[in-house]
Design brief:
The structure holds 2 protein chains of 2 kinds. By secondary structure, chain A is α+β, with helices and mostly antiparallel strands. In chain A, 20% of the residues lie in helices and 32% in strands. Chain B is α+β, with helices and mostly antiparallel strands. In chain B, the strands form 5 sheets. Chain B has a 7-stranded mixed β-barrel. A 6-stranded antiparallel sheet of chain B has the order 1-2-9-4-7-11, covered by helices on one side. In chain B, helix 1 runs parallel beside helix 4. The chains are: A alpha+beta, B alpha+beta. The interface between A and B is large, with 48 and 45 residues.
Chain lengths: 230, 321
């Protein structure tokens, strides 16, 4: 078990309507931290058991708690969540259920239309982008936005590139994408403002499977070079 | 004829946001609840959500139906049927919905509820992700939709309805919705906050079940910051860099990162569901207690309507068995 020795900062609460609280780490200055995320998973786990809590949704270093506002007094709930956050054991979540996923990727060419621009932006060659993207080990921080879509932390900082000024209206499911410091795989064909560097045939979400989502928070993801198209 | 957008919806897919699956479900869930309670259906029964109207359905067998939501000047074999009304129909009868003169969405519930598979605890169509409901899509002309056998079968000798006041018609062309301030409310100056609350916002044609894109004065936050992605709920009023607000709704993504000014309270989401593109809305701040009170009042209203509907059904129906 990893010791987490970072100083305790209290959570900041805001309403997401009368039946939900958004719990955020104060002074997170928008920098993702894995240790904070591990505590978020742990918090999600314990808050879910609280009376009146209907749903917990881990985000990126934050947690949305949906509750029954008719049954629960919100001040009590805030105090309970803050208490759980402050007293939780300084250990990371028990990750024995975490899986390692190998995702085969066809990089570049018609499968990764933005890789040339991204390489130029990063000051790297396309080969170096592929190398850095496929050598990193990613952690699934959260799922969200669309069914089964993983928010991955662990992208090589050199590959950070702010999202496109405007989104493409239709990007195929399976697109391997980069948006700012986050990496992901598009799970449904949809509009997308991230940069497309490759494509995988792996299916992130199938409502008929159990579980429906391939990835779970805490899982590790590695991208494997299946083919390079230039 | 399936109309502009007709889909199978119940009260939505709850509890799956942590894997990125959104709510879907009836936009006007009060109207759906009333449709079900008029028939004695369980509250979780699925019905058809009809957008704008312009559709026709033929019944393959005798059953009882309820229409709620906006009035689409429905006719059954040419005889008018009001909204917020239950009536028995015969096999081969044709129900036609005209284009609604006002409002946007109506609900057609059928005794027993629509028979589509339960996926992740819901029969709602997730139109964006393409699963649930009727083959994961909106209905098309020629589709045959099955219905569960009702546990209580009856024939209504005459139709009955509930007060038309429930139709939620506002005399004013501008609909006011109440919001609770959200995380970035205070990142906007007093002037920006006032401008936001005092301006009518035009609902643009880009608006749909995913969200309403609004048009009005440009509003910019004092403090521009990069936010980390977080869970959002229907009703969330985001302010993208364009300075034109977007209200995320039932089919929206489960996560977002734009600054949030507020979130429309649950009791007022049904008002939004009936606002058409081209109409305008405005926002009013309220407290969490007021929002909970409004929600409780709607619940109580449904409970009392349920009792009324039960006694009406008893009085007007012949049991078939």
């Amino acid at each position: 078990m990893n010791q987490i020795n970072e100083p305790k900062t209290s959570l900041q609460f805001s309403f997401m309507g009368e039946g939900a609280l958004l719990c955020e780490v104060v002074n997170a200055n928008a920098k993702l931290e894995l240790v904070v995320q591990q505590r978020i998973w742990q918090l999600a786990h314990s808050v879910k058991e609280q009376l009146g809590v209907l749903e917990v949704v881990p985000g990126m270093n934050n947690l949305l708690v949906v509750f029954d506002p008719i049954r629960d007094l919100v001040t009590n709930l805030k105090a309970q969540i803050q208490h759980l956050w402050m007293v939780q054991l300084a250990t990371s979540t028990d990750n024995c259920s975490a899986k390692l996923h190998h995702i085969p990727v066809v990089y570049g060419g018609d499968m990764g239309v933005d890789i040339v621009d991204l390489a130029a932006y990063a000051g790297l060659s396309v080969e170096e982008v592929i190398e850095r993207h496929s050598q990193a080990e990613y952690t699934v921080y959260a799922l969200g936005s669309q069914p089964g879509l993983p928010y991955l932390g662990g992208l090589d900082p050199q590959l950070n590139k702010p999202r496109r000024a405007s989104a493409r209206t239709q990007v195929k499911a399976g697109a391997v994408i980069i948006g700012g410091s986050q990496a992901s795989v598009l799970s449904r064909t949809s509009a997308c403002g991230w940069h497309i560097i490759g494509y995988t045939a792996i299916e992130c979400f199938n409502p008929a499977s159990e579980p429906a989502a391939l990835f779970s928070p805490g899982d590790t993801v590695k991208f494997i070079v299946e083919e390079v198209r230039l | 004829m399936a109309g502009m957008l007709t889909s199978v919806q119940d009260h939505g897919r709850k509890g799956y946001r942590q894997i990125g699956v959104g709510l879907s479900g009836a936009m006007d869930d009060f109207a759906l609840s009333v449709a079900n309670l008029l028939l004695g259906n369980p509250n979780e029964a699925a019905a058809l959500e009809i957008t704008l109207g312009g559709c026709a359905l033929k019944f393959k067998s005798d059953t009882t139906i309820a229409l709620t939501g906006t009035d689409m000047k429905a006719t059954l074999d040419g005889h008018p049927i009001p909204s917020w009304w239950a009536v028995s129909v015969k096999a081969d009868q044709i129900l036609k919905m005209a284009i609604a003169p006002k409002g946007l969405r109506s609900y057609l519930a059928i005794a027993g509820g629509i028979d589509v598979p339960l996926i992740m605890c819901s029969r709602s169509t997730d139109l964006k992700a393409g699963f649930g409901g009727f083959n994961g899509r909106a209905l098309k002309a020629g589709d045959y939709v099955k219905v569960f056998t009702s546990h209580q079968q009856y024939y209504l000798k005459q139709g009955f309805g509930i007060s038309r006041r429930l139709q939620n018609e506002s005399k004013d062309s501008n609909v006011v919705v109440r919001i609770l301030a959200a995380a970035q409310w205070n990142d906007f100056s007093k002037e920006a906050q006032c401008l936001f609350l005092n301006s009518p916002w035009l609902v643009t044609p880009q608006s749909n079940r995913l969200g309403y894109c609004l048009s009005g004065p440009v509003i910019v936050a004092q403090k521009q910051q990069e936010l980390l992605s977080h869970g959002i709920l229907p009703g969330c009023v985001q302010m993208p860099p364009s300075g034109q607000p977007v209200i995320q709704l039932n089919d929206a993504n489960t996560c977002g990162g734009y600054p949030k000014l507020g979130v429309v309270i649950e009791a007022d989401l049904r008002k939004l569901a009936q606002v058409r593109p081209g109409e305008s809305i405005s926002f009013q701040l309220c407290t969490q207690q007021q929002a909970v009170q409004a929600r409780t009042q709607l619940q109580e209203q449904l409970t009392s309507l349920k009792l009324q509907a039960e006694s009406m059904r008893k009085r007007l129906s012949d049991p078939l068995f």
